[in-house]
Design a protein that fits this description.
heterodimer; A: mainly alpha; 12 helices; about 85% helix; B: six-stranded mixed beta sheet; 7 helices
């Protein structure tokens, strides 16, 4: 497995797109930190990048990479290598490359300008977002044979998580505002990794004014060690479940 | 060497393989022929574990291969259209597959004959279709496999490369290997193959030796023999 991962990372780095992505993030981060008077405001601006732009780029890149590697995968499947090994290697290879790009592009500036617990949390959130959306991209790529459709599914999922979901929750909460819906809303936010990460981050930042309506509801519930642990567990599930589902599907797929 | 029993595979409504049962013995060179879409590539891919059959089984040296992967170490596969990671060079591809297989006892005859060592630094993106085919062929033969599955091996190769490949195929057959070739160009198969598998609409119509086929049809050339069979079998003319 190590050998295959090595070749996948080498292949990704050769295409230079990931290097461009890292540079783009680096420029954005440096600009943000230099334009804002205080580093904590810079961090706030970075949050929206980490939560909106990063999932989209990750999703797009990972889906396109999986489709472009279809022949590479076929070549590997005809070799005496387990399918499981191939799929997990691709997953780890893309994850390593994109996480590294994120660490260079965002982790480094955060370390320079705002190396505190919130900065660390932002970096961890960014890494978990990267992993979650790679998992979703793998799932989209394995379920759809058609490249355009797979990328379309990816964009729809991103739209759903970053825009539609919030509107949907807002609608529900207004409709049922006469009832005690806090617990229900908590469960709902667990269904959206972007929302959940945003809540977890903003709760730590004394910036509740920036929270969406969904965020405001659980200020009390998710603050504190229990809330953080629970949130992290849900995020871990968001990473593992799509990867596991895609792995199962790939094991049975006709190439 | 390979036994196929009641192999069936459907893609939606299309029956790509319909109850295919046959034996592929060692030390033979078999031509797998049939009209487009008759299930030839699906059969080859089933043997390689790239397509999962709905029912039936494939035995490789008596072992069921479904869900297995070790047996692939004894198979060399040359795909119809070999496509490789575009950014890698020929040398990197060869090294990678050698590294992944981790096998000693390499057979580098073909890469020498095709002079691949002179263009090791070329990226796969910049290669012509024929050169890519040369890489595919070199890879298929590289590990001295006991079974070779060649899907349209000579398509896109220049005449010199074709004759190199044909000689290599004959040499390997005489070493006691099983070679399965799918092709549409029947004339090039004449002096290579010792048996013919004919597929149509997912069914294996026959698996006979070429001598029996010649006797049966009265034609010496494989192309005319097959043409006669296709004519006596009206449904194939429409495909």
């Amino acid at each position: 497995m190590k050998k295959i991962i090595k070749y996948i990372i080498a292949d990704i780095l050769r295409s230079k797109i990931v290097i461009g992505y890292a540079l783009l993030l680096l420029i954005i981060s440096l600009t943000v930190f230099n334009l804002q008077a205080s580093p904590s405001k810079g961090l706030l601006s970075l949050i929206s990048i980490v939560l909106i732009t990063l999932p989209l780029i990750t999703l797009m890149y990972a889906t396109i990479y999986m489709y472009n590697s279809a022949e590479f995968m076929e070549l590997l499947v005809s070799q005496p290598v387990k399918r499981k090994t191939i799929w997990i290697s691709f997953c780890i290879g893309i994850s390593c490359a994109l996480c590294l790009a994120f660490l260079v592009g965002v982790g480094l500036p955060v370390l320079l300008y705002s190396s505190n617990i919130i900065g660390l949390l932002l970096v961890i959130t960014g890494l978990s977002q990267t992993l979650i959306f790679i998992g979703i991209a793998l799932l989209a790529a394995v379920y759809s044979r058609d490249k355009a459709r797979g990328i379309g599914i990816g964009i729809l999922i991103w739209l759903y998580f970053s825009l539609i979901f919030d509107g949907f929750v807002l609608f529900l909460l207004f409709q049922f505002q006469d009832y005690p819906v806090d617990k229900f809303a908590l469960v709902l936010s667990g269904l959206n990794p972007i929302d959940l990460s945003r809540i977890l981050l903003l709760l730590k930042m004394d910036a509740s004014a920036l929270m969406g309506y969904t965020g405001a509801v659980f200020r009390e519930t998710l603050d504190g060690p229990v809330g953080i642990t629970l949130g992290s567990l849900v995020l871990a599930a968001w990473i593992l479940i799509p990867v596991w589902l895609s792995l199962r599907k790939f094991g049975k797929k006709d190439l | 060497m390979i036994t196929i029993e009641q192999l069936t595979k459907t893609f939606g409504k299309l029956k790509a393989l319909d109850q295919v049962t046959t034996q592929l013995p060692k030390s033979t060179c078999l031509a797998l022929i049939g009209p487009n879409g008759s299930g030839k590539t699906t059969l080859a891919k089933s043997i390689l574990g790239m397509v999962h059959p709905d029912s039936g089984q494939i035995l490789f040296k008596g072992q069921n291969i479904i869900g297995q992967d070790h047996y692939k170490a004894q198979i060399g596969y040359m795909p119809q259209i070999g496509r490789y990671p575009e950014n890698m060079t020929i040398g990197q591809i060869l090294d990678m597959i050698k590294d992944i297989r981790g096998q000693k006892n390499l057979d580098e005859d073909l890469s020498k004959a095709f002079a691949l060592h002179k263009i090791l630094n070329k990226t796969m993106r910049s290669l012509s279709g024929g050169t890519t085919q040369k890489v595919s062929a070199a890879l298929a033969f590289l590990f001295n496999p006991e079974v070779l599955i060649l899907d349209e091996p000579t398509a896109g190769l220049d005449p010199i490369a074709q004759s190199i490949l044909k000689e290599k195929i004959l040499l390997e057959k005489n070493k006691g290997k099983l070679i399965v070739i799918t092709s549409h160009i029947l004339s090039e198969l004449d002096d290579l193959v010792s048996g013919v598998l004919y597929m149509q609409d997912g069914k294996l119509l026959f698996n006979t030796s070429i001598d029996a086929l010649r006797r049966q049809t009265g034609h010496h050339r494989l192309s005319s023999a097959i043409a006669q069979i296709m004519q006596s079998n009206p449904s194939s003319q429409t495909t």
